[in-house]
Amino acid sequence: MSLKSQAQLPNRLFSKDPIINLENFQKQRLYFGFYLGFNSYGFKMDYKTVGEDIQVEKSTGFNVGLVADLKLQEYIRLRFEPGLHYTTRSLHYPPSYFPTTPTPSDLLREVNSTNLHFPLLLKFLSLRTGNIRPYLVGGVSATLNLSSNSKSIDDNYEERFRMKPWTTNYEVGFGIDVFSEYFIFSPSIRGVFGLTDELIRDNNPDSPWTGNIESMKTRAVFINFTFH
Description:
Pfam families: OMP_b-brl_2 (PF13568). This is Probable protein-translocating porin PorT. The protein is mainly beta. 4% of the residues lie in helices and 54% in strands. The two termini are 28 Å apart.
């Protein structure tokens, strides 16, 4: 291969007249892949009475999982993306929540989650332009939190924050399929919105940690990099 040909290779993907890669790949009825990515989980809090909000400190976690992609028609595909997600959230409680002067440990609860995530999504494809194909994605999901502490009889008075093991969500997002010579690379961003209250209340109904919370639902952003 000449030096001129080598220099032209990186430009073929995005040029006006690119070499069309994997032209018939998405015509398959079913294909598989995997993804790696990042997440940022938070909570949407609703309260029983108006007061200071509990501050939710987010951190960046990571995702890994598999993809099964089923063709329903030319521009619509059904996707199942089971994955394992790790994340940490910190809840900072206002001192006004406590009847007496709280200790620093009273004001902070670390919520560590190891989630098995099961989304069932519809992928709406646009027309393909060269080796680029944008898409929209949306659907529903169920999440099993393996770190929920739901079976513990201890609660926040013993510094044990408890959550329900199963939650349901809806998800919406967008991404781009980039067709290389040997595989499809697909970066995407997706919002996740919990539909159900996830909090298990403390045994004391007047608990400063859970007593004023009407509902606590997941809010999350996923940035995934998928390979087919």
